[in-house]
């Protein structure tokens, strides 16, 4: 019986080649999209899940109160980990980590004549008890015996020594600001997996950082990250309650509260509102899961419409089978079998498409996903395909098997009104989703353009930045100042400065500043931007009042605030007044107009500049049109001053755009998926148009006999479908307008949706519908009326 069904199914597929091809395109495209999204979602769900104690691993976050509400940051006080481990029995292990990403640039590691850029992070003594970082060679404890021992990754060891044998105890040179020096290799570790958020090449003892930056001993600093492993029996909610006000026991004047969040959840749930986790990238995971579902449903709808469009050709087959005793159940099984067979044919095509598209997909998503046919993957693909086949074939199977035997054999079968409306309803659903995709793509595109064109309050055009090897001793400082002076003399260079952090979100923070007239208990979180001479001028910032820094020894006693800081402090006539922090007094010499030094998700925060003669990160403003020649001159000057070191530069606007890499990738993916959804929807419309033209064949013949033109017949058929598209737009526009408005509200600065977005969407979808329907309408209109009116 089953063999018979398969033979009949295969013959029907071969007999109706155009029908088979259209169904195959629709289903395989839908399945390919679903598989790609499945791979992406699966990868997202496994980010940072590599730690053995993942279920008990938490990161301590800090909630800072401000006039705009509570801001949650991941940077905490240096002594926090040690105190938590000592004072809370729930804590099994705790560690302080200053991650590689905290630094704006990588350092240079050298062995003999090999010079490589590498990222290093500073870790506390319990690092290997908290993070799963396998040691390949050496002893993890050796890293913490002194400050001159370093751990290097397996990959870095191969690059430096071309082997991992007998390199424990060898000495390498590390150049990274004041942390530069000669270090002995104490261990080789296996680098983090690709789906980890933090990647690094070297591990240093956190005590080294404390020795260079004694401010880390203070409870008022907020630079490193703190991670804890809770004991098996510990209650995370109870622990959160206990640590909330812990900082007040160490720093009486603070209003910062603590919050422990699951470490591996932070990647997907990294957005906080008023101190509470409120989503994040999980929104995109859910969004694309829904998109995959809708695309698959659209593909199934296509199959239904195309199958019912061809149903009249199989009416007599159904009638004869029923007449000789076939039960409806067996017919349903046969037709479901045909659709499942089609689905599995589509699966093979989809897998081929995924293989072809995966490199491009990885490039767009910034991932390294592979199509690994493990049990989970195979099982998921088979289940998805089987369900797709059953859903796609369900309506045609019950529709065909439900034909009345006598009516079919007499040729008197007529389509019911409910069946007609169901098919039209399915098309409306398809185009509602298509309209939603089109509007979404346009809004995301408009917001990305808004971000790229936004006046940030500083210039990011024609500016490169790079790191120089320097330490804080006088000889190194003089050499670095000479280097900056030499750069200023180069043709094509307009200005040069330096800085410690960057202008795209990485910066220090201070909350214990004192100023004249400060109200008791009032705290303001200031972003601390440490810069070199001429930074304000090089970045093209505008002064609202006062002046920039003087270029002499007095400059380190001066400070410049932004407008938001002066407003938060409530200072009148600020220039000339004195503020105090870190037991140092500084005089306000200027106020710059507000500028965006974080992403546009955030409002401009209070910040200040403090200056030093030169910092490790160099910023060069170039004359427009001379970039290539100027960069070559800068590179040569770098080589003259820093022989053997690697020159790697980036454009400032690239760093800014990197803040919105996720949004740009989502925008590109949305375009692709929207295009595919529209393509599949048009196939469905094509199927319904064919069905309608076939059903109205005699009506069209009669109209032509009494004088209707081809244009009249084409318009007659097209208007009906345009009505369906109009209904789809009426449903879609309010829904997607509301959803995209909510998405835009996540940005502190955003574009407006505008009526033209909906007009462009309406024109686009109507044009596509007319082109799709037009083919079938014209085909029906030009048919010889004699053939149309001939009895079957």
UniProtKB/TrEMBL annotation:
Keyword terms of this UniProt record: Cell membrane, Membrane, Transmembrane, Transmembrane helix
Residue ranges annotated for the ABC3 transporter permease C-terminal domain, each copy included: 290-401, 673-781
Ranges where the MacB-like periplasmic core domain occurs: 20-245, 432-628
Parts of the chain that traverse the membrane: 21-41, 284-306, 335-358, 378-400, 421-445, 672-693, 721-741, 753-778
GO MF terms held by the record: transmembrane transporter activity
Annotated source species: Dyadobacter psychrophilus
Name listed for the protein in its UniProt record: Duplicated orphan permease
Source species, domain of life: Bacteria
């Amino acid at each position: 019986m089953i063999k018979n069904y398969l033979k009949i199914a295969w013959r029907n597929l071969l007999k109706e080649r155009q029908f088979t091809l259209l169904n195959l395109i629709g289903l395989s495209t839908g399945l390919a999209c679903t598989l790609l999204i499945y791979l992406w979602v699966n990868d997202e769900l496994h980010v940072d899940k590599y730690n053995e104690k993942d279920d008990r691993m938490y990161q301590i976050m800090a909630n800072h109160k401000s006039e705009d509400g509570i801001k949650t940051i991941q940077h905490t006080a240096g002594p926090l980990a040690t105190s938590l481990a000592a004072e809370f029995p729930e804590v099994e292990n705790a560690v302080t980590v200053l991650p590689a990403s905290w630094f704006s640039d990588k350092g240079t590691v050298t062995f003999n004549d090999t010079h490589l850029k590498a990222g290093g992070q500073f870790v506390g003594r319990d690092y290997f008890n908290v993070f799963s970082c396998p040691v390949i060679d050496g002893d993890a404890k050796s890293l913490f015996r002194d400050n001159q021992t370093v751990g290097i990754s397996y990959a870095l060891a191969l690059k430096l020594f071309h082997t991992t044998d007998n390199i424990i105890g060898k000495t390498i040179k590390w150049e990274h600001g004041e942390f530069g020096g000669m270090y002995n290799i104490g261990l080789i570790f296996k680098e983090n997996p690709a789906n980890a958020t933090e990647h690094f090449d070297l591990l240093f003892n956190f005590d080294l950082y404390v020795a260079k930056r004694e401010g880390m001993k203070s409870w008022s600093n907020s630079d490193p990250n703190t991670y804890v492993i809770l004991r098996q029996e510990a209650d995370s909610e109870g622990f959160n309650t206990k640590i909330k006000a812990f900082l007040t026991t160490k720093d009486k004047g603070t209003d910062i509260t603590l919050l422990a969040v699951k470490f591996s959840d932070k990647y997907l749930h990294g957005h906080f509102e008023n101190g509470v986790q409120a989503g994040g990238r999980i929104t995109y995971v859910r969004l694309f899961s829904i998109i995959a579902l809708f695309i698959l449903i659209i593909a199934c709808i296509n199959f239904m419409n195309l199958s019912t469009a061809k149903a009249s050709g199989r009416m007599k087959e159904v009638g004869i089978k029923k007449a000789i005793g076939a039960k409806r159940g067996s017919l349903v099984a046969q037709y479901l079998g045909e659709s499942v067979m089609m689905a599995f044919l589509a699966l093979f095509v989809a897998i081929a498409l995924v293989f072809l598209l995966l490199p491009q997909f990885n490039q767009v998503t910034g991932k390294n996903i592979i199509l690994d046919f493990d049990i989970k993957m195979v099982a998921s693909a088979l289940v998805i395909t089987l369900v797709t086949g059953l859903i796609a074939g369900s309506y045609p199977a019950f529709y065909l098997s439900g034909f009345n035997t006598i009516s079919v054999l007499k040729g008197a079968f007529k389509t019911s009104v409910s069946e007609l409306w169901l098919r039209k309803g399915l098309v409306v659903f398809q185009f509602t989703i298509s309209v939603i995709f089109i509007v979404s793509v346009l809004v995301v595109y408009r917001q990305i353009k808004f971000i790229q064109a936004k006046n940030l309050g500083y210039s990011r055009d024609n500016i490169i930045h790079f790191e120089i090897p320097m330490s804080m001793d006088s000889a190194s400082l003089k050499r670095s100042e000479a280097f900056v002076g030499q750069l200023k003399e180069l043709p094509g260079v307009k200005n040069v400065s330096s800085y410690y952090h960057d202008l795209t979100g990485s910066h220090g923070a201070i909350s214990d500043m004192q100023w004249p007239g400060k109200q008791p208990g009032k705290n303001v979180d200031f972003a601390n931007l440490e810069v070199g001479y001429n930074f304000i001028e090089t970045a093209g910032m505008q002064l609202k009042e006062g002046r920039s820094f003087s270029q002499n020894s007095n400059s380190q006693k001066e400070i410049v605030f932004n407008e938001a800081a002066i407003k938060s402090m409530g200072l009148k006539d600020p220039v000339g007044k004195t503020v105090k922090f870190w037991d140092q007094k500084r005089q306000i010499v200027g106020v710059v107009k507000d500028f965006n030094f974080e992403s546009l998700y955030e409002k401009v925060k209070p910040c200040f500049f403090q200056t030093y003669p030169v910092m490790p990160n160099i910023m060069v403003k170039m004359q427009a049109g001379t970039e290539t020649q100027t960069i070559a001159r800068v590179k040569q000057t770098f080589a003259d001053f820093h022989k053997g070191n690697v020159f790697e530069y980036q454009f400032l606007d690239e760093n800014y755009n990197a803040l919105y890499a996720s949004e740009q990738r989502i925008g590109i993916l949305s375009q692709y998926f929207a295009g595919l959804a529209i393509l599949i929807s048009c196939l469905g419309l094509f199927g319904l148009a064919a069905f309608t033209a076939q059903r109205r064949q005699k009506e069209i013949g009669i109209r032509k006999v009494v004088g209707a033109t081809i244009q009249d017949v084409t318009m007659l058929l097209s208007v009906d479908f345009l009505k369906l598209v109009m209904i789809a737009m009426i449903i879609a526009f309010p829904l997607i307008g509301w959803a995209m408005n909510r998405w835009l509200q996540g940005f502190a600065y955003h574009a407006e949706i505008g009526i033209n977005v909906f007009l462009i969407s309406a024109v686009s979808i109507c044009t596509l519908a007319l082109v799709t329907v037009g083919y079938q309408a014209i085909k029906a209109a030009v048919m010889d009326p004699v053939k149309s009116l001939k009895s079957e």
